[in-house]
Amino acid sequence: GLETDREIPDHALRVRLSLPGARKPIESRARVIWQQQAQEQPPRYVSGCQLLALPEAIRSRIARCIEQTQS
Q1: What are the start-end ranges of the H helices in 1-71?
Q2: Which of 44, 47, 61, 69 is the most exposed place for a label (fewest CB within 10 A)?
Q3: Which of 49, 33, 46 is nearest to 6 (CA)?
């Protein structure tokens, strides 16, 4: 998820992901799928985003990274 100090407008945005061991970050367009305010002070917002138009090689790198963190 993505954590911010304000609500994210409901439109496409650009994100940059830094994966462990990668030399440069992955940049992608994304769209907000869900968003909720966390029960914190000051208010924080937690959002789920869908990455758009990623090449299969990048998708595979992200999937491997997720698998490694879950094991």
Answers
A1: 56-70
A2: 69
A3: 46
What per-residue confidence (pLDDT) applies to 8?
Answer: 87
Residue 34, strand partner residues: 48
In this structure, the chain runs to a length of: 71
Angle formed at CA 5 by CA 48 and CA 51, multiple of 5 degrees = 25
The 10 Å Cβ neighbour count of residue 29 is 14
d(CA 57, CA 63): 10
- Going from the C-alpha of 37 to that of each of 6, 14, 40, 51, 56, the distances in angstroms are 9, 21, 8, 21, 33
Tokens of 17: 């992901």
SS3 69: helix
